[in-house]
Amino acid sequence: MDAIRIRGGGPLRGTVPISGAKNAALPILCATLLSDGASRLRNVPALRDIETTAALLRFLGRDVTVLAPEVHVAAGSSVRPEAPYELVKQMRASVLVLGPLVARFGRAKVSLPGGCAIGARPIDQHLKGLEAMGCTIRLERGYVVAEGPGGGGRLRGSEVYFDIPTVTGTENLMMAAALARGRTTLVNCAREPEVEELGRVINKMGAEVDGAGTDVIHIKGSERGELAPFDHAIIPDRIEAGTYMVAGAIAEGGDVTLEGAELSDLEALVVKMRAAGVEVASEGQNIRVRRSGPLRAVNVTTAPHPGFPTDMQAQFLVLMSLARGESVISETIFEHRFQHVPELERMGATVALRGNTAVVQGVEKLYGASVMATDLRASASLVIAGLVADGETEVRRVYHIDRGYERIEEKLRRVGAQIERVKGAES
Ligand code: EPU
């Protein structure tokens, strides 16, 4: 398994290009199932999760060509509306094929994702919504088997209330509703920019989506029961941008410009970074991050968008581990999302974990160590810690990073980091 080796050093300076958003590209790739024509996605990041989704779409019978940063998807000669455990266990977002498959083919069999490194992550809200649209749902040997009304018929527009806002749940039901007969209203939706982006694509395909990005979404399903293919360029990845914002601020003197990043998608992080003493400015299509003084301790609580993103919690915690004073970081979205903490403690961070809260006492310095993480954002946080740690840090099991950060070593080297990939390191 590959590892990433970092020699801690001075501040980062320069420009980092931001890739297309992974969590926007995944549902949009699944939306291609709603149409039989040839769709083209542009600005798709070259990531393992994209490859996994391409493999899943091929298994389902689609013709998929990945020519990063483009992906082309067309209907193949046959359809197999079934997502096997082998693929779903590699990537939980595979559940995003459930809504499109049952809406398009009247039937879907999708493996239950099971628990994962950051929590239990049930899909009850997805299933409840599909049932409201007339589906019959059975659980069979670890699989969800969903059937349209009357044994495979067209879904019916309906009203669905989410007990908690769920990103992929909202996306799954938006896609199902796009092919349903009549109107669907989704209430208490996730408001993430990636949900809004999917709404734009479904509109391009010919269904009518109104309110994506707010907590109530109305969808008028296609009258003819079919949707057109699309050509679409994916929005920039706000979490990748946020990660490089923290990387730019981790050492005093840092001055990093993120090319093609959207500040308005990152308001909560920006406010907290500024409160911590980091300068953040929007410069045209770019975000510039500078730090010239000490870091101040700031508290954060993760929340659904537009709250502070859980996907930035680990990286921000690293920043706070070097701030003056005590900060309290609360995680309200996933129950096991502090796996970076014991690894950071091995690098010299002082953190007390109490349930879903981490109390961080800032220290003067972190020290290089051999560390490992079991999820994507936690791994990224360890890389950031390594950038300023004294000596050498080896982050193992980097396949987690490859799921969500395109060419991370190359991008960090551009701004002066001493970082390299070690092929086939010990796991
Ligand atoms: N939940 C339920 N029932 C459901 C669905 C969700 O109880 O039916 C709970 C979850 O357990 C969690 C909360 O609702 O406590 C929110 O989960 P959500 O469904 O919104 O998460 P997700 O859709 O599975 C997406 C991102 C994650 C990101 C979360 C939260 C994609 C492909 N994944 O996951 O991204 O952390 O939203 O913002 O969009 C990542 O990129 O590293 C990543 C984990």
Structure write-up:
This protein is an alpha/beta fold and 427 residues long. Helix content is 31%, strand content 25%. It is built from 15 helices and 24 strands. The strands form 6 sheets. The chain has a 4-stranded mixed beta sheet with strand order 22-23-1-24, covered by helices on one side. A 4-stranded mixed beta sheet has the order 2-15-17-16. A hairpin with a 5-residue loop joins strand 12 (208-210) and strand 13. The longest helix is centred in the middle third of the chain and has 13 residues, at 193-205. The protein is elongated. The termini are close together.
Terminal CA distance reads 6 Å
**Unreliable runs, pLDDT <50, ≥5 residues?**
none
**How many individual helices?**
15
Percent of residues in beta strands?
25-35%
Give a list of the ligands: uridine-diphosphate-2(N-acetylglucosaminyl) butyric acid
Helix share bin: 25-40%
How many β-strand stretches? 24
How many strands, what sense, and barrel or not for the largest sheet? Answer: 4 strands, mixed
Task: Give the overall form.
Answer: elongated
User: What is the radius of gyration computed over CA atoms, rounded to a whole number of angstroms?
Assistant: 22 Å
What do the pLDDT scores average to? 96
The class by helix and strand makeup works out as: alpha/beta
